[in-house]
Write a structure and sequence with these properties.
The protein has 337 residues and is α/β, with parallel strands linked by helices. The chain contains twelve helices and five strands.
Length: 337
């Protein structure tokens, strides 16, 4: 049997493929914003947009929820090709807005992640703009070459209403969890108890790690709480019988060295790639307890209770390294969420 491949058939196939590809991108990005909004919330705060200045976290979470629902609904609309004359221009407009905001924001070129795909896929703002451009080109191609099939208007309306209701419900549950408990419905961070600790996360980690019990502190040079931790952590690092303390910080080696000298840090402070730190940390400081190569606990903004209990008691081997009153008070403050 002879098969004739016409120009119209090729155009239709190209149009369908463009819709499917771009629809998957929209749906994946929107779903990850809904289930794991912390990365995108962090990116929004880094944008330092005037309209968001002074806004409470709940307002920023609401904006994230609306954007995520819109992305998910548009993704479904592209996948099944409903209301193309309205969906295509709306998608193009949204992509232009996203790219413009990213390009004009102060974080362009400095931020490690656009937050578009949570911690599953780390894209820099520049890569995000490029992805927006490719998505826009795909939509233009799909719009330029219409296909000869489609669903009835009633089915299109039904799909649209069900999609809006479904994703709005997920958004409400996700943002409530984020605001109420500070947790995502889907935790995409690789820092989870019972998982293996990856020494490659901190550059030179293998050169310093020589004990079975480790305490890894992930710090930021802009975090005031991190700076308040340094004095008591210095005492902890020198006290016998305590887990070995190693810290990590995103930044250039020269800048990290200057930070170490400025605050007289007595424990190893190792460089971490910015993209790696984005995947690992939701907030600073983060303390990770590692036993025999496995993560046993992850504490954000607080010290483990057992570690604090040990620090409150003088060391029989080195009583001079017991934290003084100021350090103990600082440690107790840091043990509270």
């Amino acid at each position: 049997m002879t098969v004739f491949i016409t120009r119209d058939l090729v155009a239709s196939v190209l149009s369908v493929l463009c819709c499917l590809g771009t629809g998957c991108v929209f749906l994946l990005a929107g779903a990850l914003k809904l289930l794991s909004p912390s990365a995108f919330l962090r990116h929004i705060s880094n944008l330092k947009l005037p309209v968001l200045r002074g806004r409470p976290r709940a307002a920023t979470a609401a904006i994230t929820a609306v954007l995520a629902v819109v992305e998910c609904v548009l993704g479904v609309a592209l996948l099944v090709r409903i209301f193309p004359d309205r969906v295509f221009p709306l998608c193009l407009g949204l992509l232009v807005v996203f790219a413009t905001v990213t390009i004009l924001s102060p974080s362009m070129g400095r931020s490690a992640d656009c937050g578009c795909f949570g911690n599953i896929l780390i894209l820099t703002p520049s890569q995000s703009v490029l992805l927006n451009a490719l998505s826009a080109a795909s939509i233009v191609a799909a719009w330029r070459f219409p296909v000869g099939f489609g669903v009835t208007p009633l089915v299109q309306k039904t799909i649209l209403m069900v999609s809006v209701a479904f994703f709005t419900g997920i958004a409400a549950a996700s943002m409530w969890s984020s605001v109420k408990f500070g947790q995502d419905l889907l935790d995409t961070s690789p820092l989870k108890p019972r998982r293996r600790w990856n020494p490659e996360w901190l550059e030179g980690f293998r050169d310093y790690s020589n004990r079975h019990s480790l305490l890894v502190a992930l710090l930021s040079p802009d975090c005031l709480v991190c700076k308040a931790w340094i004095e008591p952590l210095n005492k902890l690092a020198r006290r016998p019988g305590m887990p070995q303390l190693i810290a990590g910080m995103a930044g250039e080696t020269k800048a990290i060295g200057a930070f170490r000298r400025e605050f007289n840090i007595k424990f190893p402070l190792l460089p971490v790639r910015a993209t790696t730190m984005v995947r690992l940390v939701h907030a600073y400081p983060t303390l990770v307890t590692v036993e025999d190569g496995k993560i046993t606990s992850v504490n954000v903004g607080q010290l483990p209770a057992e570690l604090l209990r040990q620090l409150r008691h003088p060391s029989p081997c080195a009583p001079g390294l017991t934290p003084d009153a100021a350090s103990t008070e600082a440690l107790e403050a840091l043990s509270r969420p």
